[in-house]
């Protein structure tokens, strides 16, 4: 594994690698706080690209590369098969999902205490609601 010398060369090679094999490409980011070294590794199992730096300026460039890769990944998934299926009004498999039927949000049914469109309250932090023990005087 050889580290790439310049950021522009690394960035163009990463984008080219991802465009050739979007399903196989993956990347890992490591930061070592003791040395302050940032290591970025992108691979598709046949080719491995690595870049390391100690500079904080590269963090902005890395953020733009990360944003670009994530947006292309999201766009590729969004463009997945969207062929319209013809069904006779039954809400079954293959019908377009209704608004709010996101499987990640819990089935799309709003709770009765909340109006649709309002954010859900965050759970209370602190772990259990117990009273704090008082410290003795010293």
From TrEMBL:
One of its GO terms (biological process) is SRP-dependent cotranslational protein targeting to membrane. GO terms for cellular component: signal recognition particle, endoplasmic reticulum targeting. This is Signal recognition particle, SRP9/SRP14 subunit. GO terms for molecular function: 7S RNA binding. Residues 5-71 form the SRP9 domain. InterPro entries: Signal_recog_particle_SRP9/14, SRP9-like, SRP9_dom. Residues 129-138 have a biased composition (Basic residues). Transmembrane segments: none annotated. Residues 78-138 are annotated as: Disordered. It comes from Cutaneotrichosporon oleaginosum.
